[in-house]
TrEMBL record:
Protein name: THAP-type domain-containing protein
Alphabetical list of InterPro entries matching this protein: THAP9-like_HTH, TNP-like_GBD, TNP-like_RNaseH_C, TNP-like_RNaseH_N
PANTHER family: THAP DOMAIN CONTAINING 9, THAP DOMAIN-CONTAINING PROTEIN 6
Domain Transposable element P transposase-like RNase H per the UniProt entry, residue ranges: 92-226
Coiled-coil intervals: none
Residues of the THAP9-like helix-turn-helix domain: 24-85
Length: 705
């Protein structure tokens, strides 16, 4: 792409060059906006690109929209015009005619290419604010199933039931209808689902599956429609389409099922596998406390929030990060490699985490070119491996026990039963669409999840504004924008409005000047005094086997970063080795990892030693200290073993003694390492605070307030 500065004056005068520049430099929306500005008062109707831009900008922020409109000479439509555009769409509860028209267009386009559109129907409820309102013509807030508000019954709506289509062989999704409800039984919801299937059938788009969450009513709906989700020994995970008779396959949302499995494990604490081995939650807790005690983590995301999952049990990421491969690898590292007695007999727990992780990955494939073992799409290349693994998972789940009873026969069975249903359904769906009828080449299983409608709900909630309690960092960023920019106006509906033309004071964004000499002298005195306080015996190493191995693992990451910056070929050679020193790195080698040399590992280990001593005396959040890098680096250079520089050989004499490549590279390694450690310590500090916002937010939403 070329920009204005790339063109010569003669080129710009050429109409063909100008046209090329115009199309290469501006997006369709920008071109439409500038064309309308240039037309002046004689303007035609708004074209499609400008309409889309105006609607999107107005959705995100009305104040931003008004500012852009006034800046570009009112080239954008007035907000009343946008309101008229919205008024042409009937968004009343029920099935949307506009969605039907859009689906017919998609089906017609596919038909011209001799293709068919296959979709998954996703439905879920969203809690809404329980409030009765009236605009003088209509009353809002009562239950409405598409036949008009039922104000006479006096039953107020507490939820919005939304149906959304997600294309399996295309890249779009669309809500097709919604209903304002106050709890529905299985028969009532089944009738609405049948009506939705019939409504979509008129468009020519084919629904092959449905996805829902773990609400018991949803499972009962499927049983009403002809499926059998009660008996795990005789599962029937489909029901016939009300018009075509084709099978509609059932997928309880994999993310929701995964959360329910985590909830079951975290509540029961112990589960037995088919060999009688105990899957124990205490090993997850011990892993967290071991990492906190040692100060470094074993390349996993386990934090305090994961143990206090009850406060955020709706958050999928916490469940996935708890029952993950990285947690399984960390437990095995402590049990097998370090022989930690606290993790004896933990192999059943790590196996459970690894199986759940891989099964979740299979049902979360979203990229055709993914190279990870279980995150590739389901196709002829992965079919045999995936189905064999899923069959093993099916046997594994069916034999899990709690207190001597099969877990799929207890009250906590929903998550495990949902996974069994998904295993059965994906095998049948793949066999039909890919193997037998050859209508698809592969299936991206992420399209069968409920994330699409959850993201839609998030967009609905964000329209009203969120994050109304900024952090100090966010407050500082806001203040900078207020001071640097002049064109900031207050809300027209605020308590106070501007009565004159006084603008916010404009401040320069240039860097402030300081007395460098005095600042340097003060910092040198501070560094000297603190360095004297850190008395580290060079002959005594305080690092445990745990920390020695983890620092060697971190050293590999640092080498990977340095390879992008270091230009000296000899220095690049001393950074790497062919041998893997870290046992943790051996376990984590399911990608391309870099083996750090003994020189880099030694520097990182001494750096960790000095950094821990510094933390013990001063803490990482010391507000009056801005030279932590210099303090730690100076101390490390004094504590390094004498033979550390031997790998540089004669290369160390190619420069001045105090500025040779050994000193420079060592400082660069330490700078990277200290940055990582400081980031980790700040994250630990933030994690120590008890999070109440997520819990209170969900409490308010589910109370319909």
């Amino acid at each position: 792409m070329r920009y204005f500065g790339d063109f010569k004056q003669d080129d710009i005068e050429d109409p063909l060059i100008r046209k090329q520049y115009w199309h290469e430099s501006f997006s369709d929306s920008a071109q439409a906006l500038l064309k309308r500005v240039l037309k002046g008062k004689k303007r035609a109707t708004y074209d499609a690109q400008l309409r889309a831009f105006a609607l999107t900008l107005n959705f995100y922020s009305k104040r931003a929209y008004n500012y852009v409109r006034s800046t570009f000479n009112k080239a954008l439509p007035h907000v009343k015009t946008i309101s008229k555009w919205y008024s042409t769409v009937d968004a009343s509860p029920g099935y949307m005619k506009e969605a039907l028209v859009a689906l017919k267009i998609k089906a017609a386009e596919a038909s011209q290419e001799n293709k068919r559109i296959f979709c998954s129907l996703v439905f879920d409820e969203m809690s809404i604010y329980n409030k009765i309102e009236s605009d003088g013509r209509k009353t809002y807030g009562y239950v409405d199933l598409g036949t008009g508000s039922e104000a006479d019954t006096g039953e107020e709506a507490t939820e919005a039931l939304v149906f959304m289509l997600v294309a399996l062989n295309s890249h779009w999704k669309i809500p097709v209808g919604y209903f304002l409800i106050n709890k529905l039984n299985a028969s009532e919801k089944a009738n609405i689902l049948i009506n939705c299937l019939e409504f979509v059938h008129n468009s020519g788009v084919e629904i092959v599956s449905i996805t829902f969450d773990g609400c018991p009513t949803n499972f009962a709906v499927c049983n009403v429609l002809g499926a059998n989700l009660k008996d795990h020994l005789d599962l029937k995970t489909y029901f016939p389409h009300p018009i075509t008779g084709q099978n509609i396959y059932i997928f309880p949302d994999p993310c929701h099922m995964f959360k329910l499995v985590r909830n079951c494990f975290g509540t029961l604490k112990t589960i037995e596998d088919r060999d009688g081995r105990v899957i124990d939650w205490k090993f997850v807790e011990k892993l967290y406390y071991t990492q906190e005690t040692e100060g470094l983590h074993l390349a996993n995301k386990l934090r305090r929030r994961h143990l206090l999952w009850m406060r955020e049990k709706m958050k999928v990421s916490l469940a996935v990060q708890t029952l993950s491969k990285s947690v399984a690898d960390a437990i095995d590292f402590l049990n097998v490699d370090l022989k930690n007695p606290d993790f004896a007999d933990s192999d059943a727990t790590s196996t459970f985490c690894r199986i759940m992780n891989n099964m979740f990955d299979i049902f979360n494939s979203r990229n055709l070119k993914n190279k990870k073992e279980f995150e590739k799409p389901l196709s002829v290349f992965t079919e045999e491996k995936y189905f064999q693994f899923l069959e093993e998972c099916e046997v594994y789940i069916k034999n899990l026990k709690y207190a001597g009873k099969l877990i799929i026969e207890t009250q906590r069975k929903v998550g495990f039963m949902g996974m069994l249903i998904n295993i059965k359904s994906i095998q049948l769906l793949y066999t039909k669409l890919v193997k037998e009828e050859k209508l698809l080449k592969f299936i991206l299983t992420y399209k069968l999840s409920q994330d699409h409608i959850e993201i839609f709900f998030s967009a609905v909630r964000s329209k009203g504004g969120f994050n109304n309690n900024p952090t100090s960092r966010q407050f500082q960023a806001i203040m900078k924008r207020l001071l640097i920019h002049q064109e900031i106006s207050g809300s027209e509906n605020a308590n106070a409005v501007a009565l004159d033309n006084t603008s916010i004071l404009h401040c320069s964004s240039a860097s402030p000047q300081s007395n460098c000499d005095s600042a340097k002298r003060d910092s040198e005195v501070e560094i000297s005094s603190i360095s004297d306080d850190i008395n580290l015996n060079r002959n005594i190493w305080h690092l445990t086997l745990y920390l020695e191995d983890v620092t060697a693992y971190i050293a590999g990451f640092i080498v990977k970063q340095l390879k992008k910056e270091v230009k000296c070929m000899h220095c690049l050679e001393v950074l790497e080795t062919s041998d893997t020193i870290s046992k943790l790195q051996v376990r984590k080698r399911y990608g391309v990892l870099v083996n750090a040399s003994q020189y880099v590992i030694t520097v990182c280990r001494v750096g960790e030693n000095v950094f821990k001593e510094y933390l013990k005396k001063y803490g990482v959040l010391r507000s009056n200290l801005s030279k932590i890098h210099s303090i730690v680096i100076n101390q490390v250079l004094q504590c390094l073993p004498k033979n550390t520089s031997s790998c540089f050989a004669d290369h160390i004499y190619d420069d001045e003694p105090l500025s040779n490549h050994f000193i420079g590279l060592t400082k660069l390694i330490l700078k990277k390492y200290i940055n990582l450690r400081m980031h980790h310590e700040h994250a630990k500090k933030s994690d120590s605070h008890l999070r109440i916002r997520p819990k209170l937010t969900k409490t308010i939403l589910f109370s319909h307030q």
